[in-house]
Specification:
By secondary structure, this protein is mainly α. It is built from 5 helices and no strands.
Length: about 150
């Protein structure tokens, strides 16, 4: 086998590897964007539901209040499940990218300085677990207050 075909084969493999890494990186960016868009979407829905509960008059009836509170709690549960799944998926993609692309693991200048500067793991956990828990507790307190009056 001539040497030229071997180097062509290596170039093809390298090119397809770069394409695969690029696709994986684009997928990770896309999933991260979905994570934050979903977070914003549900936060708006939750806030509107809380405003509806707060602004509904006593004349609207107890049943309406209970329905709004239960609906708010169900939306919070759906939000929490969706965010947890999305966060896990993004973490798997990031782990795979760090395995495939050493420069993401070590930082772009050979150190992990940049990664420490932009690390947002804690923020991601708060947005995944903290916000839905906060809204769920608000719904449960309001529902308990309404039912035990």
């Amino acid at each position: 086998m001539p040497n030229g075909s071997s180097s062509t084969s290596d170039a093809d493999t390298s090119g397809s590897r770069d394409e695969r890494w690029n696709r994986m990186l684009q997928l990770a960016i896309h999933e991260d964007l979905i994570f934050y868009n979903r977070l914003n979407f549900f936060a708006v829905i939750e806030t509107v539901l809380l405003a509806a509960v707060a602004s509904s008059s006593a004349a609207a009836g107890r049943l309406l209040h209970v329905l709004l509170l239960v609906m708010g709690l169900l939306v919070t549960i759906m939000w929490s499940v969706a965010q947890i799944r999305s966060r896990r998926y993004v973490r798997v993609l990031v782990r795979r990218l760090k395995t495939e692309l050493p420069e993401l693991k070590d930082g772009f200048n050979g150190t992990d300085l940049e990664l420490r500067q932009i690390r947002v793991e804690g923020a991601s956990e708060i947005m995944t677990y903290g916000l839905p828990t906060m809204f769920a507790l608000a719904w449960l307190v309001l529902l308990g207050d309404l039912l035990y009056k």
